[in-house]
């Protein structure tokens, strides 16, 4: 019935109790992009196309450290179909470097290359194969220099300086120019505490370089605009950070670089830095034509940062009754040739190096090095992963030396709400570390050696070695291991971490419709699903449209640090609340005379209606909004944090902590060195599950990435040449469905009163403890110390280093 033919006045109350709006928070609503992705119909960034577009290609260095003596582009320029060849001398602006925090990364190498695969020249051509062949015709004369590959070579008195004449804000407080950043944390008195220890355990640990291994390669399309600017469609994690780095090197004001998020095929930190964005824009502006760049898998290994490899040196002491007395550690992270996110990774590694335990006396030092190895930066877990691997191995060693159960030992020393961190920060929300451990330990164990009962019908996939059919049950030993970790949520150390949301509410075809517009990068985490759920919950509407993410709205920050549901979800919630307040203001103005509840009751929007908290309907939302459109854009910030003191490391550096525990069950062929992970049970406190299906998916995904680095994933860098030896999925292995075990998930919901809906960021925590749990299980099966990731067959058989 048309609104203008109603027989009763619009807004007349009716005594009808409404159900809550379907599809709101707490429900496992389906992802709007889910079906498209699993059917292959989703448009990723690499699928973009533009009429008359050119193809871009990057020429990268073939050596890790060298002077560039000459670049000859003549043959490439002369090739038919080539529209442009660019080198450093063609860059249009005074600013020729970029970087997340320290602008030390050249757009194109000038005078010197600092790592294998560094960009040196660009080509634009009318066909991708033409562009590739033209790039191959560019001749570069290198004079190779000594390479810096580890702590000893980086900090030697005569070490080559990776960056001479540093003037960044970290340069003044590091003891050597090849140290990007150093963060000590001192609390209590370790020397005195050591005297109280009945046992002292030391350990040295090595964590390998892990790749994010997202399946969608780096790609984007730059389109030159009539106003002299450029429109960039790109797969990234942080649109506005990209914009801040891109515009200065193009010599353009930010408003002339318009960015739109295209389909992202995974990220895990590897898209937080610039890859092809600037290169595509440079070529588009030079040629006046749209330019598309898509990396192949080989180039992708050189086109983004990786997880920092690390050396970790730990000492723990404990009394004979099992109480930890002190901890001393040094963490050395290899940041590679450029800073990327290394300073923040150092902050996380140092401040979380104690783990989720109560230790009053600590002496901690974390550093990140400049080397000629590949640049390293953000990856899921961000410094806390490497630390967790080491401190959890230490917990097992201390428990063993005391003759205690490893879980009970952890529970005895577990932090809880009110614990003071080594930085002096009080943990002011639930910290159910002991309970998480109890839950994973209490879970029934899977049957042992399941193939025995099956006899000849046994599935070889259940055995170590799987379909390779190398193991038939002989020499197979079961091992069980436990681990728990602590991760911060959001940006820390005083960073102005905020997110923006714009929400419009209007009537379309007689129905109230909300549109949510943010710059959040949907990289697979399900943020677009949650934003719609929040809008339905707060505005009581069924129809919610998610606007494509772009830079025409304020920044949403990075899709990293487990922050987006907290931060951009918080922004959507706050903005929806402001929209709701305007709706009720309009309703009171239009219909307030019909019912006293408009003035006195707590009013809600549910099911397309304005209702009292008792469920009485006061008006249809469509009637309230008739002739009206509400449009609000607001920023949301979490409570402020502080930078860590550069001498003592004290400070309220983090906004929130999150915890996860794992129990790994493995079966190991001790003769062949083959490992089958049978189960990886996990328990995690998520504060509030806004979408349980997404929560479980994130926990299982993070757990699987931790499994990968435990037993197979590592970028191999030649220590003599600093060249990457395995830049392909043939040689860099990631877990497939055949490698991934059953991952039962136990979810706790203990609300954080400081967070929207009480939620906790959850995407990173399971990546921490899954790795040391698997290593602990393998140690239990083999009796070997195993202080390095990943564990390879030769480590178990004694046939390799």
Automatic annotation (TrEMBL):
SMART domains per the UniProt record, alphabetical: Ald_Xan_dh_C
Bias (Polar residues) ranges: 1-21
InterPro entries attached to this UniProt entry: Ald_Oxase/Xan_DH_a/b (IPR000674), Ald_Oxase/Xan_DH_a/b_sf (IPR036856), Ald_Oxase/xanthine_DH-like (IPR016208), AldOxase/xan_DH_MoCoBD1 (IPR008274), AldOxase/xan_DH_MoCoBD2 (IPR046867), AldOxase/xan_DH_Mopterin-bd_sf (IPR037165), Xanthine_dehydrogenase_dsu (IPR017609)
Coiled coil residues, start to end: none
Location of the Aldehyde oxidase/xanthine dehydrogenase a/b hammerhead domain: 39-146
Region (Disordered): 1-32
Database matches in Gene3D superfamilies: Aldehyde oxidase/xanthine dehydrogenase, a/b hammerhead, Aldehyde oxidase/xanthine dehydrogenase, molybdopterin binding domain
PANTHER family membership: XANTHINE DEHYDROGENASE (PTHR11908), XANTHINE DEHYDROGENASE SUBUNIT D-RELATED (PTHR11908:SF157)
Protein name as annotated: Oxidoreductase
Organism of this sequence: Streptomyces violascens
Higher taxonomy: Bacteria, Bacillati, Actinomycetota, Actinomycetes, Kitasatosporales
